Amino acid sequence: MAYAVRHFFPGGTQEQYDASIDAVHGGPGADNLPSGQILHLSGASEGGWMIVAIHDSKDSWERFRDDVLMPKLGAGIEGGFDGPPDEKSFELYSFWSS
C-alpha cells in the first residue's frame, strides 16, 4: 500500500530546500528519486517550506529514512534546513492522478 510523508520546516526557504535536496538526492528530478519513492512535491507554505513524498510502501519510506535521509541530515548539510521538520505520515486509501 502506498505511503505518504509530509514534512514542514518552520521558517524553511527554497535555498535551504535546494541545498538539502542536492545533498540527500543528488539534485532534483525524477531520475534522482530514491528506490520506492513515486512522487515528490515541495513548495513554500505559510510560515515555511513543505515537502510531500509518496512511497510505494511504508517499508520503502523507512529504508530511505534510515539508510539515506537520517545519515545525511545527521552529518549536517551546509545551507540546509536548520532543524527537524514537523512530520506527518499515513497509508494512502486512494491515489489519483491525471
Quick overview:
The chain is an alpha+beta fold. The protein has helices spanning 14-25, 58-75, and strands spanning 3-10, 37-45, 48-55, 86-91.
Query: Residue ranges: pLDDT <50 for 5 or more in a row?
Result: none
Would you tell me the structural class of the helices and strands?
alpha+beta
Order of helices and strands: EHEEHE
Radius of gyration: 13 Å
Largest sheet: 4 strands, antiparallel
Total E-strand runs = 4
Strand content: 25-35%
Oligomer: single chain
Task: Determine the number of helices (DSSP H or I, runs of at least 4 residues).
Answer: 2
Distance between the termini: 20 Å
Q: Roughly what is the average pLDDT, rounded to an integer?
A: 94
What share of the residues lie within helices? Answer: 25-40%
Biggest sheet, spatial arrangement of strands = 2-3-1-4
Shape verdict:
globular
What does this structure look like?
- The protein is of the alpha+beta class and 98 residues long.
- Helix content is 31%, strand content 32%.
- It is built from two helices and four strands; from the N terminus they run βαββαβ.
- It has helices spanning 14-25, 58-75; strands at 3-10, 37-45, 48-55, 86-91.
- It has a four-stranded antiparallel beta sheet with strand order 2-3-1-4.
- The protein is globular.
- The mean pLDDT is 94.
